[in-house]
Design a protein that fits this description.
154 residues, 6-stranded antiparallel beta sheet, 5-stranded antiparallel beta sheet, calcium, disulfide bond
């Protein structure tokens, strides 16, 4: 994503519902002065949503079904150079754990993320914050930099 543009993005349709996931990626951020979306997911009826954003302060914001939490509260991801991150979430207990360069840098349990399902049938977009399925992008959150090996596991 050499240019922060709402017209360039990879997309995948997700058929499976999620009650837990791990998302990992290598990243390097070109513009450290703005929040940058790694992935966003939304269903056609806008009822189910997922968004992972690296904030300008290095913390990670996770939004699931329109509920946003920030993890970890203290430690942050590095914002210069190439780095690897993973975010692990489970609906059974609402626990989030964040890894930076393969080391855990924080975990927290959020009651608002317990017993939540992200329904299948939507569209996953890399590098954009979508507000309707496959579009309505928020240009202020467009990823600017490099992403590689973006993986999402259920």
């Amino acid at each position: 994503f050499p240019d922060a543009s709402i017209s360039e993005f990879p997309t995948v349709t997700m058929a499976t519902s999620l009650t837990e996931f791990t998302i990992c990626s290598w990243y390097s951020i070109a513009d450290k002065w703005s929040d940058r979306t790694i992935v966003s997911y939304i269903t056609g009826d806008n009822s189910s949503e997922l968004e992972v954003t690296i904030r300008k302060d290095g913390r990670v914001a996770l939004t699931i079904n329109w509920k946003t939490v920030v993890v970890p509260p203290i430690q942050t991801l590095p914002l210069s150079g190439w780095h690897h991150f993973c975010l692990v979430w489970g609906a059974s207990d609402g626990k989030l754990e964040l890894f930076s360069d393969r080391a855990s840098i924080g975990s927290q349990t959020f009651a608002s993320l317990e017993s939540v399902t992200i329904h299948g049938g939507g569209r996953l977009v890399i590098g954009q914050a979508q507000r309707c399925m496959g579009g309505c992008f928020n240009g202020a959150l467009t990823y600017h930099g490099n992403l590689t090996q973006v993986n999402l596991w259920n």
